[in-house]
């Protein structure tokens, strides 16, 4: 009869336990791989804005994909963030205006859409001046350099009389026939390279302000410029 020592039995039991643990881990991994819903789609095909059934389906899909995001899963969280940002842009593109719209950084240069939002806000010329003079940061956190360029003797038309020049000169130009001051100012700030005031350097005013300003900042800046109605 083969004599089996107690140490041998102990080693065998240990190996068996190790195998069981390994098998369980494998099963668990396989199960999560199969059971886990697909990762959020980072490039959802946007449905038409007026197709409410498709929009609801899209929202349901988003809720489903939320369950794919487990704690500490950096990739899934990144994808979710991306999806959220895209859905937010889609809702805004479809005309949704959240109640905190004034604090949102504009991020678009579609002047018509921006003007629609500004119609709902009241511009504060005093705060506009603080922003313009870099005494207060704008929505994205940066201070603006407007007054540096728009001071007497600098590269840009002087701030004083901005409204008056609109009223007496710019508004007489054919291309501004359908404009009011607000549209002119907003376009000057968001799309500065669409039109250059004659006699001033072109492509000099930065074209990134849509990424710096919140809607309220823009309303305040426009109100400040509108108050520049000094006589020439
Ligand atoms: C680096 C210099 C520079 C900075 C900074 C700058 N601008 Fe300008 N801006 C210009 C120049 C140059 C022009 C004239 C040429 C043109 O039309 O682009 C101009 C034109 C304008 C006009 C049209 C003025 C008119 O008399 O019709 C407005 C309005 C304006 N800027 C507003 C702003 C505001 C608001 C800011 C800050 C958010 C700003 N600018 C920052 C250089 C600058």
Architecture overview:
By secondary structure, the chain is mostly helical. The protein has three domains: 1-35; 37-96, no CATH class; 111-226, Cytochrome Bc1 Complex, Chain D, domain 2, CATH 1.10.760. The chain has helices at 6-35, 52-66, 74-93, 111-118, 125-132, 146-149, 162-168, 181-190, 215-226. Helix 4 (111-118) packs across helix 8. The longest helix has 30 residues, at 6-35. The protein is elongated. The termini are far apart. Mean pLDDT is 84; it is low at 29-34. Bound molecules: heme C. The site of heme C has 26 residues, from helix 6, helix 7, helix 8 and helix 9.
Percent of residues in helices comes to: 40-55%
Instruction: Determine and state the CATH class of the largest domain.
Output: Mainly Alpha
Strand content: under 5%
Oligomer: single chain
Estimated radius of gyration:
30 Å
Major sheet: size, sense and barrel closure? none
Ligand catalogue: heme C
Query: Which architecture of the largest domain would the CATH scheme give at its second level?
Result: Orthogonal Bundle
What is the N-to-C succession of helices and strands?
HHHHHHHHH
**Continuous helix count:** 9
The fold-level CATH name of the largest domain is: Cytochrome Bc1 Complex, Chain D, domain 2
Care to count the β-strands?
A: 0
């Amino acid at each position: 009869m083969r004599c089996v020592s107690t140490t041998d039995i102990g080693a065998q039991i240990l190996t068996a336990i190790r195998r069981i643990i390994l098998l369980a881990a494998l099963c668990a991994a396989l199960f999560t791989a199969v059971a886990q819903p697909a990762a959020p789609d980072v490039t959802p095909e946007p449905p038409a804005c007026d197709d409410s059934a498709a929009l609801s389906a899209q929202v349901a899909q988003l809720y489903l994909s939320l369950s794919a995001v487990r704690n500490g899963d950096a990739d899934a969280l990144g994808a979710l963030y991306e999806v959220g940002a895209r859905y937010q842009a889609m809702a805004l593109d479809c005309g949704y205006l959240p109640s905190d719209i004034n604090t949102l950084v504009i991020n678009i240069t579609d002047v018509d859409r921006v003007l629609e939002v500004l119609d709902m806000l009241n511009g504060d010329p005093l705060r506009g001046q603080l922003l313009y003079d870099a005494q207060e940061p704008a929505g994205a956190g940066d201070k603006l350099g407007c007054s540096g360029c728009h001071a007497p003797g600098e590269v840009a038309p002087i701030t004083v009389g901005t409204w008056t020049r609109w009223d007496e000169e710019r508004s007489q130009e054919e291309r501004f026939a359908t404009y009011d001051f607000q549209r002119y100012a907003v376009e000057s700030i968001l799309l500065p390279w669409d039109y250059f005031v004659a006699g001033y350097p072109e492509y000099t005013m930065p074209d990134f302000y849509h990424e710096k300003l919140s809607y309220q900042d823009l309303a305040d800046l426009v109100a400040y410029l509108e108050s520049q109605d000094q006589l020439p």
